[in-house]
Design brief:
The chain is an alpha/beta fold and 254 residues long. It is 47% helix and 14% strand. The chain has a 6-stranded mixed sheet. It has a 5-stranded parallel sheet with strand order 1-4-7-10-13. Strands 2-5-8-11 form a 4-stranded parallel sheet, with no helix packed on it.
């Protein structure tokens, strides 16, 4: 935990230095950076305030969402470690991004994912009405709906993010990238079970993944693909219904 704290502190220092340079370069934009970044003494405080700003439609709503977020971050410091890893994953994955400040402040997929982390903490601590409130407001305002009972790893990137729906009990591993208009959830068969998404999976825009299936580590799901069967590790699934290609060894979709 000490190593994670040191990493988070370095990340926060880097964010503040970026904000200070931006303020010096553009004093007009800098006024917003003072409130959003420089007024806070930690990454957790800034992130809680960001969630409050994006989900709270009034001063009272902003204060409520900020307070819930701070409670979660104090109760589970690993949420801040995951948030730091998510932010770093965007910088690594997106060639258009040169720093930490822009995705922190302007990428709605990032704040939606951190709001989900708070909702999941609330859900697991039997504050289920509050957890569902987070889901509802993130869906309404950010167009990202992730059920509080889902499970999502770290270093996850929701790219563009509009129209992402992730259902209850979906399992998503570390280092996963999900583009816009993706649906992941239960199928119609009984008993209803949710997909398990492995580490390093890439899910293209408009893909649908349904049912009691597993997407193996480092697999890819192409844009518009409909997946209702397992995808082995390292394979690419394309089409509707999905067919497998580029597998590291012979595999079938059956």
């Amino acid at each position: 935990m000490a190593a994670a704290t040191a990493t988070d502190d370095r990340l926060w220092r880097n964010i503040r230095e970026e904000a200070e340079r931006a303020c010096a370069f553009d004093p007009v934009f800098g006024k917003s950076l003072v409130d959003a970044v420089l007024a806070h003494d930690s990454f957790a405080a800034a992130l809680a305030d960001l969630i409050g700003r994006r989900l709270g439609g009034s001063a009272a709503g902003r204060a409520r969402f900020t307070s819930f977020s701070l409670d979660a971050f104090r109760g589970a410091p690993e949420l801040i470690e995951a948030a730091a890893r998510d932010l770093q994953a965007i910088v690594r994955s997106d060639p258009a991004i040169a720093g930490l400040l822009a995705p922190l402040l302007h990428f709605k997929g990032y704040v939606a994912l951190q709001a989900w982390r708070v909702s999941n903490w609330l859900w697991c601590h039997d504050h289920r009405d509050a957890a569902l409130l987070f889901q509802n407001e993130a869906s309404n305002l950010l167009q990202v709906s992730i059920h509080p009972a889902a499970s999502i790893g770290a270093s996850v990137y929701l790219d563009h993010a509009t129209g992402i729906v992730i259902g209850a009990d979906v399992l998503i591993g570390d280092e996963v990238t999900i583009l816009q208009n993706v649906s992941i959830g239960r199928g119609s068969e009984l008993p209803t079970r949710s997909p398990r998404i492995g580490r390093g999976v890439y899910i293209g825009a408009g893909a649908t993944i349904l049912g009691d299936i597993r997407i193996g580590d480092f697999a890819k799901v192409g844009a518009g693909t409909v997946v209702t069967h397992d995808v082995p590790s390292g394979c690419t699934a394309v089409g509707d219904p999905a067919r497998l290609t580029n597998c590291p060894e012979p595999a079938s979709a059956a």
